[in-house]
Amino acid sequence: MFNIMINYELFTLLPLIIIVGSIFLVTCTIILNCTTIINYIITIVGVFCALIITIINKHNIININNLIVIDNHTRLFSVLILLISIINIILINNWMKLSSIRYDEVYLFILIAIISSYLLINTNHLAIILLGMELTSISLIGTINYKTNYYVVSISIKYMIISIVTLLLIMLGTLLIYNSSHSLLLITKHIINNKQIYISGLIILLIGICFKLSLVPCHLWVNSIYQHVPIPILIMLNITVKLATFVILFKLVLYNLLNNDNFIHIVIAISILSIIIGNLMTLSQTNFRKIIAYSSISHIGYLSIGLVIAYYDNTFIPVIFSNIVNYIITNLNIITIIHIINNYQSDKHDMLPLSLYYGIFYKYPLLTSLLIINILSLSGVPITLGFINKFYMLLYISNHHIWWLMITMVVTTIVGFIYYLRIIGSTYKHANYNNIISYDIAKIICLVYTIIFSLLLLVLGIYPNLLFNLFKIYNVI
């Protein structure tokens, strides 16, 4: 029996072992100055193998000394992270070819980001969370700093300072939690000696998480960082890291045994402010990068409100997962479409003003139609997956007569639709769009999965039970 348990644990940890082995191989190839294609193949094969093993793993719950805890929820998040990473690797490799940049270290940093995300998702131990946050910061700082010009170095330093502040806050919160409970477990079953100190530790930990998720009041860094990073790196910033960090907030709100309403009220306040401020800041933007940056604040706010609803009603958890799927697919597709359109001919061309996309529908109707579908789903228009999620959220709020929250949700949704409508309108403006897309194998792959994912948003918007039944099959709900 002991040997069987060891085999189960080894098989469960095999994705982590494969990624670590890929990091070792990529490090060796970089030292030996091998060609970029070798690093690309090692990276994508390693991540793909880790994805397949994670999918076929059927063991329900694995707990390795509370350091690594894998259940059906965390397994789903791990699959999403690995799938996103494969797409991210393809886009980054294509970006380096188009930009004539050789930056092999980026594969190493992507693998480190996967390791950190895996640790953050599959742990209940605050020490492992600290380690995961540190690895996330290292990978992103290294990925952002791909050139030695002023802007890139400047934003790298900014992000490094933000990461240091985040780690200090999480460390202080961890110390206070340990002082009051004598446990480093996020989901603690120990007796809490001083609830006030414990709550203070949770709040400080929450502020550190808000920095990573760019929630109000820790949101001001997104503008400068998002403006100057390569477009494929936006996937790491806006999806991968935020998804892994959101899992910590997921556990902090839903699985923490303290059940303190004061802490939940703070989460509600942060979520509402993020929704309002994120939408208002996006309303005046005329740059695609800034729209992605500021709109992410409001969308993470919507996800956080979903967590609060699930805190009072566990049956709402499937809607949270559905909302996460919608956030991932729409952001992934929008960034991919921008990548396909851009050929990185100049820094100005890479800044993504809306004027760059004037009249694009008349030249690239397929890409523009896909872009519009994803924008509509992100804004919550009917017959899309985004509408279903907001509908269930508003339905729950109305059933419980929380009218102030209902009014806030409706007004901010309308505001969000206004600035998304401006993007859609710009694609129909008559202008001389001179950019010519040069298709290669990578861009064709990107186009294919973008079409599939966009159609999926429509299918799930019409038949949402398909997604909920899939969650039930894999015992996620």
How are the SSEs ordered, and which strands pair?
Blueprint: H1 2-31, H2 36-56, E1 62-64, E2 68-70, H3 72-99, H4 105-121, H5 126-144, H6 150-181, H7 195-213, H8 222-228, H9 233-254, H10 261-283, H11 288-312, H12 317-341, H13 360-363, H14 365-379, H15 385-399, H16 403-426, H17 441-462, H18 465-473
Antiparallel strand pairs: 1-2
How would you describe the overall organization of this protein?
The chain is mainly alpha-helical. The chain has a domain at 259-477. Helices cover 75% and strands 1% of the residues. The protein has a two-stranded antiparallel sheet. A hairpin with a 3-residue loop joins strand 1 (62-64) and strand 2 (68-70). Helix 1 (2-31) packs antiparallel against helix 2, helix 4 (105-121) packs antiparallel against helix 5 (126-144) and helix 5 (126-144) runs antiparallel to helix 6 (150-181). The longest helix has 32 residues, at 150-181.
